Amino acid sequence: MARYFNGKEVELLAPAGTFEIFKKVIRANCDAVYFGGPSLNMRMMRKGYNFSRPEMVEAIQLAHSLDKKVYVTVNNLLNEGEIEEAREYLRFLEQAGPDAIIVQDFAVLALIQDMGLKLPVHSSVMMNVHNREMIEALSQMGVTRVVTSREMDLLTTRYLRETTGMELEYFIHGDMCSVHGANCYFSSLVFGMSSNRGKCLKPCRWDYRVKKGGFVYPSEYPLAVKDMFMYEHIPELIHGGVTSFKIEGRMRDTEFVLMLVNAYGDAIDRYIDDPVGFERSRDTQLLYDNRKRDLSTGYAFGRPGLSYINKRYEGTGKFYSTGKVFSTPTEERRLGEKRLGEVAAYLAEAAASSKAGGQEGERNNWNKPTDPGEQTERGNQNNRMELSVHVNNAAQAQAAFEAGADHVYLSGDVFEPDRPFTKQEIKQLAAIKGNAKLYLGLPRMMNELHFEIYDGLLSGERLPIDGILVTNLGAIHKFASKGYPLVGDINLNIFNHLAAGMYAKLGVERFTASIELPLHDLAKLLGNAAVPMEVVVHGSPALMYMEHDLYENTEVFEPIAEEENRYVDNRILVLMTDKGENPVYRDAHGRCHLMLAKELCLLPVMNQLQDAGLSVCRIEGATYQPEQLRSIVSTYKAAIERPETAGELFAGMTPVYAGYTLGALQFDGGAPGQVEAVDGACEGKQEKERVQVRM
């Protein structure tokens, strides 16, 4: 079955969570169905859902007998322990014969290439595809369809379809996120439950208070967005270049999915049959009466602003699909002595295992000091870890250079009130950097205008920089030929050595590991990576990166109380619960970055990280005052040069914000399909905030 309008294919793509649901949905008014198998997909938390392998085979055969298509989700990020499982699973899928698989992790593409499989691949919405350069790069990798970023408007989809020829899939109904795809790490760092691995506990649905300028504003659920609703805009979707109309809902029950499929299918058929006389709102009331939340067209027609935020039905604290409580406001775990000991011991064990396996010599080929004659107090003379610092302004960059940083990254998402780095500032910083290296950072999300702007900058006179900090596949594809070394930023979400290897083939020379990696997974990545790896060891990295402007709350609403910020300047917006305050910085592009309430601090285990294979440790310095940053950089520099003093140095530090945390290293991870327990998420609350640890 296939639908066409003026020669353009129009596919209605329905979800199915179980084989029983599938058998009814595939016979309804849709053209294709997507579902997940027994592992490696983003919907593994509901017991009894997803398909067994025999059910997958039968489902594919049934769909094809009805002249319909099946797409299988293999859309998790893979840890090192899941790679062999993925290899075997992909071999099974090629035999089962789905019409495509939906993929997030570049490791899956690497496995398909390595095994010579013929599986068609669609890029998941979690790849966050949002520009032409990304699509062209994916096309060269064999991807035949792109599920677009949730923040993409229909003018952009039309442009991308016309300029690339790529099939585009677009969410038309269902649950949405306020955060850019694969750029939400809140659930991981608070609960050890990765939203990029299908285990999100939805901190975006918590009841927050908004605070700024000494005032509190009446915004109960400022991150909780409405459900997508494009029923009345079938013409705009078709003429916007969208091939596949995707309904979200693999965890929904049969009746709800059938209602959506039949309503949207009928609307598409009616428009194809009579476009002029098309009645847009025939089933609007039906869909409205059966909504789970209130409804919105999202970013389809531009930034929705506060109209995107949901109030009705929020506060239940439950997943709509299961009725179970997902989470309540929870404090980030404090750095505790017991956990530090566990982390240090495991990293030491991993390092010993790596050396026994013969991988140390392999790493030594790339993990060398800036000065070959430089020595450390450690036994390995050729394995000095280096220090990088991510900065927001020239004063921070100067402080980092003076304190001994080896690498300084100039942010591409500069936080207000600072402005983006000028060419003159770059030249001035290059003149004082000494033996250190200076990098130009790019924005996380880059539209076509951003590419034009940065292409103009990088195509002119040679900049006095040592490389580019790249944030998305499109930037790698566009700028790899400019002659500047490339370093992969955090949001490439490197979880395994295969993904790093895929990016390395495109020209990236060093990678920042995902900040979501729990202890076991990080250790395995460091042990297996054949390229230099960088890890964020200090600072307040962004937990959420969003197009949604939280500052609008303070511009639209009148304050209801007065209260000062506890840890950051009153000019900075804060989201607060009774468990803490998370600062939110707005960048020069108008995007918001929600940060950790505490400071990540891995100083006490620096020695063990170095032994485990870490090449570069990174300080997220964008939110510090220059003198604060100078002190932090100096401390880490001293710990690198004399690792045995790390405990003493840590004991002398004072947190700038609400204490210290180990971030994702609070959690073990490592087991395929493992779900960390949520109970005890505040473990360590009784421990002292400041502990003295000597490693």
UniProtKB/TrEMBL annotation:
InterPro entries found in the cross-reference section: Peptidase_U32, RNA/ubiquinone_mod_enzymes
Pfam short name (any one): Peptidase_U32
Disordered: annotated segments: 352-379
Protein name: U32 family peptidase
Species in which this protein is naturally found: Paenibacillus woosongensis
